[in-house]
Amino acid sequence: MSKAFTKEDDGTENVHLDDLPQSPHPNLVTPSGLAALNGRLGARQSDLAKLREKAEEIDRKLAIAVAQRDIRFLEARISRAILVDPKSHSPRIVAFGAEIEVITEDDSRQSFRIVGEDEADPTHGLIAPYSPLGVALMGAQIGDTVEWQKPTGIVDLEIVAIRYE
């Protein structure tokens, strides 16, 4: 058979990874959350450019595919972003972007801030509006007690302060 009709593995095939799943929720973002997404996108684009300059390596192809997948994900998140200025909300009602101070059942104080999904970090008190705690807090006012459904049971939280940056 002629060599023209055979395919030899020369190692030059590109690796393609499936896209990362996108959240079904509207992509609400704070100004700082949108800036962080744009920063992550810029960093991944820079990483991709550096990877493409390297000599041919097997690991490089996978790294390029990962960077390309991450860039597609971030571009989609940014294109779906709905910028919400927290200062546009009433300081009397918990809404997206609010920092909420609560008193728990054991009289300890905790603070949470409702941010976009990409910015959420529960260990630092940053929660998504679609999380169980976010859902419980949204629409509440100072003096209200809300029920937070946790895996270990329901916790009552009294809203004592609402602030917006």
UniProtKB/TrEMBL annotation:
Domain Transcription elongation factor GreA/GreB C-terminal: 93-164
Domain of life from the UniProt record: Bacteria
A molecular function GO annotation: DNA binding
Compositionally biased residues, Basic and acidic residues: 1-19
InterPro entries: GreA/GreB_C_sf (IPR036953), Tscrpt_elong_fac_GreA/B_C (IPR001437), Tscrpt_elong_fac_GreA/B_fam (IPR023459)
Any single Pfam family the record assigns to this protein: GreA_GreB
BP term (GO), one: regulation of DNA-templated transcription elongation
UniProt KW keywords: Elongation factor, Protein biosynthesis
Chain intervals for the UniProt region annotation (Disordered): 1-27
Protein's UniProt name: Transcription elongation factor GreA
Organism, as annotated: Flavimaricola marinus
Gene: greA_2
